[in-house]
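#onboarding

Welcome to the new folks! Below is a worked example of what a typical request in this channel looks like: someone posts a single protein sequence, and someone else replies with the predicted structure as tokens. Don't worry about understanding the tokens yet, we'll cover that in week two.

Example request:
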Amino acid sequence: MPISAQMLVLKFLKLARGPPNISACSDLFFGNCRAIHSGNSVPRLTRFSLHVPKHVEVEFEDGSTFRLSAEFLRVNSPAADGKLRSIAGEKVIFGRRHVGIMKVEPIGNYGMRIVFDDLHRTGIYTWDYLHRLGTNKFSLMRSYISTLKKHGLSRDPSKRK
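Example response:
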């Protein structure tokens, strides 16, 4: 059963230990959420915004804010399967330019599962993983596009016959 934005807010609020900051785009305040790796120096998540179907925005206590597109999150899925093609040992996910986010499910107080409209749903995005993605967003995207070009693949979905 799909989860509405209001239900998502309620589920996340049950996990949050700080006061909520809820707006029309489902902003959530996670004042006391900690990274899953306590020895890690990743800042705590302070705000999560879901903008279905296009992107999420995350903000951390160090003031860093990242807008992560559905395509970027999908091709950098932490899932082992990821519906990918292995070319010469390289993980290559292609044709996901227009993928969308259908819903987000909270996982403990350390992350979330994103369900994409291509039905991929097995990756758990921890808050520290989202911080690493945001911090390295431009180099990761350049590398992704370079890999696609190297193998003659496209960000665009295959044309249906």
